[in-house]
């Protein structure tokens, strides 16, 4: 049986969900992906695996994220709270870019880049272990070589979640 909970998370403006999630658009869909406006990833939340599917609801100036949790076990209020914390951390939803934009408004080159990338918040890894793994694997080789290596490591040693016949 699959349990589903849906709720919304607000982000500190300015947040461009599409720019921030597009980084994952070429990823392995069993691990983490972004397509058709939906970011999907399996996360260990409060000791259990769950799939999170995020979709943007609001504009860059008033960002809001729709969250769909799917799990093979009952989703508790604590699970939703921990999941919300994880999502806010991964996408830096509480990071305020206003002071950055104020600092660079008189710098032509930086201002031009900021306009092109307005609302981009660089995603982070959900755990220290994953960050360390990324750091080690990506340190001496190109990302084009490192990413397939990371996928193989996750599939070989990571936990898996099967929902509705699909494995993540």
Question: What can you see in these coordinates?
Answer:
The protein is built from six helices and seven strands; from the N terminus they run βαββββαααααββ. The radius of gyration is 17 Å and the shape is globular. The chain has 168 residues and is an alpha+beta fold. It has one domain (3-167): DNA-3-methyladenine glycosylase AlkA, N-terminal domain (TATA-Binding Protein, 2-Layer Sandwich), CATH 3.30.310.20. The protein is 37% helix and 24% strand. It starts with a strand and ends with a strand. The strands form two sheets. Strands 1-5-4-3-2 form a five-stranded antiparallel beta sheet. The chain has a two-stranded antiparallel ribbon with strand order 6-7. β2 (32-35) and β3 form a beta hairpin. The mean pLDDT is 91.
Number of domains: 1
| Major beta-sheet overview | 5 strands, antiparallel
* Secondary-structure-derived class: alpha+beta
- CA-based gyration radius: 17 Å
- Counting DSSP H or I runs of 4 or more residues, the number of helices is 6
Number of strands: 7
What order do the strands of the largest sheet run in, or round the barrel if closed? 1-5-4-3-2
Low-confidence stretches: none
Which descriptor suits the 3D outline? globular
The third-level CATH topology is TATA-Binding Protein
Query: What is the string of helix and strand elements?
Result: EHEEEEHHHHHEE
Summarize the amount of helix as a percent range: 25-40%
CATH C-level: Alpha Beta
CATH architecture: 2-Layer Sandwich
CATH level 4 superfamily = DNA-3-methyladenine glycosylase AlkA, N-terminal domain
Mean pLDDT: 91
Q: Give the terminus-to-terminus CA distance.
A: 16 Å
